[in-house]
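Incident log, support desk, overnight shift.

02:14 A customer reports that sequence design results differ from what the structure should imply. Their input is reproduced verbatim below. On-call engineer (initials T.W.) acknowledged and began investigating.
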């Protein structure tokens, strides 16, 4: 029997087909053995001649010989099919493993490219006062600031830089970019006077 599918990858249905073929062969072998049983219980090795060396007259010699021959051929076929089933399952399993490894590698590559494309943060939000301009804008604790108006990782020296930008931007929206949960998030923040301290909170 030819290799299932020739050059194409083995599929589950190929394996099912081989298993069906194996079942068919087993059924045929069983039928042949039953036929031998029906011939006075002659098995595969009992002599087909009587004590004087004459062909036995109590059984159908032709049927017995044919059944024996078929059993030998079918057992060889069975062995070959079992080998094919084993190989097909092995290939199927190897392909699943390969696919799983490829998916994992792709996910890892994607995660790496995302983290590489994230800009450098220069400050982290420690607290946000409820009702403050920072809170209203949607800033959250643990947000990592990568851009605060004109300030970014390249020109940031100390928090005074941010304070200066805030004082010059009172009442005007500032573009703030943060990294939150591994993703870049833009926040529109307008520094202004409120019930608490400072212009941000």
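02:41 Re-run completed on a clean worker. Output:
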């Amino acid at each position: 029997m030819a290799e299932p599918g020739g050059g194409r990858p083995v599929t589950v249905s190929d394996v099912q087909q081989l298993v069906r073929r194996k079942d068919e062969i087993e059924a045929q072998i069983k039928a042949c053995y039953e036929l031998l049983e029906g011939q006075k219980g002659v098995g595969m090795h009992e002599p087909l001649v009587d004590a004087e060396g004459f062909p036995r007259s109590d059984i159908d010699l032709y049927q017995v010989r044919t059944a024996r021959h078929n059993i030998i051929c079918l057992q060889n076929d069975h062995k070959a099919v079992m080998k094919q089933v084993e190989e097909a399952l092995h290939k199927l399993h190897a392909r699943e493993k390969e696919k799983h490894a490829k998916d994992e590698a792709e996910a890892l590559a994607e995660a790496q490219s995302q983290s590489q494309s994230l800009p450098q943060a220069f400050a982290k939000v420690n607290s946000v006062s409820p009702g403050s301009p920072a809170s209203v804008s949607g800033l959250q604790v643990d947000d990592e600031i990568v851009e605060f108006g004109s300030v970014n990782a390249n020109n940031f020296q100390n928090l005074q830089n941010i304070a200066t930008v805030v004082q010059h931007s009172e009442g005007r929206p500032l573009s703030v970019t943060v990294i939150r949960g591994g993703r870049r998030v833009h926040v529109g923040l307008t520094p202004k006077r409120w019930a608490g301290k400072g212009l941000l909170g």
